[in-house]
Amino acid sequence: MRGFYIGRFQPYHNGHHQMVEEIAAEVDELVLGIGSAGDSHSPRNPFTAGERIMMVNKAVSNFDITTYAVPIEDLDRNSVWVSHVQSMSPAFEVAYSNNPLVIQLFTEAGVEVRQSPMFNREVLEGTEVRQRMIEDRDWESLVPDEVADVVREIGGIERLQQVTSSDRSECVAGDDDVNPC
Ligand SMILES: Nc1ncnc2c1ncn2[C@@H]1O[C@H](COP(=O)(O)OP(=O)(O)OP(=O)(O)O)[C@@H](O)[C@H]1O
Ligand SMILES: NC(=O)c1ccc[n+]([C@@H]2O[C@H](COP(=O)(O)O)[C@@H](O)[C@H]2O)c1
Questions:
Q1: Fewer beta carbons within 10 Å, N or C terminal of the chain?
Q2: Domain annotation covers residue 174
């Protein structure tokens, strides 16, 4: 059986990694959807799709499962988003998500959805990891070692600090439900 798990993975952290480990016990193959693939260089979405593919591929390489990382760009039309995902991904029988909108859209489209517990959510959250990166506090312990290596290789900390400190006044969170800056 092949599963599908989508996230923005900004960055891919130990909560995602634990979820993939649990999914790997249930499926033979897993598609990792790199969500909001067109977004990068913003405080909420600092890393490009290509950089996130590197993070995910390297981090999951130790798991005994075949994975495919597939970039999925956002659409302005939720009603056709599942078809869009299916058009970009290897076929899958089950979708894994804890995101209420994603769960609703897959369920309405007749795709089985499985949820997972949230692992140590107080700290294992992309927002917390990015905040620590901005403040030069320990973020490495919240991500797999391979992800920390990629972040360093691409100058990710400097980029995030730069896009956070530059004038973001034109970018009002809530302007766009799918891509708040
Ligand atoms: N600690 C966690 N344990 C289990 N699942 C998680 C955890 N953190 C995120 N997820 C799930 O992984 C999927 C992708 O999440 P996403 O990439 O948005 O991470 P996030 O930590 O919620 O990031 P952000 O804070 O940037 O929104 C979602 O279904 C989300 O609920
Ligand atoms: N209309 C759309 O483009 C649409 C709808 C639902 C989810 N998504 C995307 O799916 C991903 C879901 O991942 P998260 O659980 O990390 O939010 C995000 O990248 C989100 O933008 C997009």
A1: N
A2: no
Structure ipTM over 0.90, yes or no: yes
Domains: count for the chain: 1
Q: Classify 66 as helix, strand or coil.
A: strand
Report DSSP letters for 111-138, one per residue.
-EEE--PPPSTTT-SHHHHHHHHHTT--
- Residue for token digits 């799918």? 178
Q: Which atom of ligand 2 is nearest to the CA of 36?
A: 19
Q: Which atom of ligand 2 is nearest to the CA of 178?
A: 21
Instruction: Write down the residue that tokens 């299916």 correspond to.
Output: 86
- Number of the ligand closest to the Cα of 122: 1
| Ligand 1 pocket test target in 8, 123, 133 with most atoms within 8 Å of CB | 8
Place of tokens 């039309």: 77
Predicted TM-score of the model (pTM): 0.93
Q: What is the pLDDT along the chain (181 residues), one digit of tens a residue?
A: 999 999 999 999 999 999 999 999 999 999 999 999 999 999 999 999 999 999 999 999 989 999 999 999 999 999 999 999 999 999 999 999 999 999 999 999 999 999 988 999 889 999 999 999 999 999 999 999 999 999 999 999 999 999 999 755 455 554 444 555 5
Owning domain of residue 109:
2-165
Task: Pick the ligand that lies closest to the CA of residue 9.
Answer: 1
Q: Is residue 91 part of a domain?
A: yes
β-bridge mates for residue 34, sequence order: 7, 71
